[in-house]
Design goal:
signal, twelve-stranded antiparallel barrel, 7% helix, 51% strand, mainly beta, Transporter, 310 residues
């Protein structure tokens, strides 16, 4: 299983390397609603499904810029998002992930204002590669740790910009309580030289979690994006007309974890970490509701995930 996953990861990475640069017209960078922590057990492979369904969507702004010609805002709005990912932990200090994302997005170029709030079908939207480095690990589930993440995202639709995401992972664990913050910069690049908008966004994902039992955990999570830091980039006409679109969400989640263990001791594990190796399978299911905190954000987003670790 792990050998096959290695080949699959390598193949997806090679495919990403040969993808050409897309266009631009980048709205606010809205990543998957997912928390990146500092967990790293060498040799593990994890399959992940991250999903979101939104409603109470913000109405699209438009303006007639010439007789019969309309401009529409570029706010990032999707009814559905589904990501399929494979994550591999290579050492105690490094793990990597590749994934694809499907989205049901608002139409880029509606035929007229009456279609401004219409959506296309659910389509394959993006491929991405991510790496996480654990700089200061948390030992024995007590203390504060530090890591760094970098992700390269390539949208498959012509007219969309590539992006690179990077920043720190800060995590604290004390008994059953834990807190994680992912604080990242997002830079857009590539596309038609006449239309490029190489702007910088700030994105965050935070979580406070309480492990009630070995199986059940309760969390409060928040996700958001500050669209266009300072005067970065070169806004196109729609940005001049409608401005930028910060988005913010927050809400409660519940996680259930099932473990199939044999509790075998991993004699090859570094004694500094002193961990037992779980040679079974772990399945974690999460579900929760995120409330939009401003007018640019959908009023509610149902977030659910399935993670299977081998």
């Amino acid at each position: 299983m792990k050998a096959s996953a290695c080949w699959l990861v390598g193949g997806l990475m090679a495919s990403l390397c040969f993808l050409g640069a897309g266009g631009v017209h980048a709205g606010p960078a809205i990543g998957q609603f997912e928390i990146k922590d500092l967990e790293a057990e060498p040799g593990t492979v994890e399959f992940q499904s991250q999903n979101a369904h939104s409603w109470g969507l913000p109405k699209r702004q438009y303006q007639e810029v010439a007789p019969g010609e309309f401009a529409y805002d570029d706010n990032s709005v999707a009814q559905q998002r589904h990501a399929l990912e494979i994550e591999m932990t290579l050492t105690h200090f490094f793990r990597m992930r590749v994934g694809i994302e499907y989205e049901k997005e608002r139409l880029d170029d509606p035929e007229g204002p009456v279609f401004a709030n219409d959506f296309g079908g659910l389509t394959l939207d993006e491929i991405a590669v991510e790496g996480v480095v654990i700089l200061i690990p948390i030992k024995n589930k007590h203390g504060i740790g530090l890591g760094a993440l970098t992700e390269v995202e390539h949208p498959l639709e012509t007219g969309s910009a590539n992006s690179v995401v990077f920043g720190p992972i800060i995590e604290a664990q004390y008994g059953p309580w834990s807190a994680v913050a992912n604080l990242t910069l997002v830079h857009f690049f590539g596309g038609d030289p006449d239309e490029r908008d190489p702007k910088w966004d700030f994105a965050y994902a935070t979580q406070i979690k309480y492990d009630a039992t070995e199986n059940w955990a309760f969390a409060l999570e928040a996700y958001g994006t500050v669209d266009r830091l300072g005067n970065s980039g070169t806004p196109d006409e729609t940005r001049v007309l409608f401005g930028d679109f910060d988005q913010h969400r927050m809400g409660p989640l519940i996680y259930y974890t099932y473990r199939s263990e044999n509790n075998a001791i991993d004699i090859d594990t570094d004694a500094e970490f002193g961990e037992e190796k779980d040679e079974g399978t772990t399945v974690t299911i999460g579900v929760g509701l995120l409330a939009g905190l401003n007018q640019n954000t959908p009023e509610a987003t149902l977030k659910w995930s399935v993670e299977v670790e081998f």
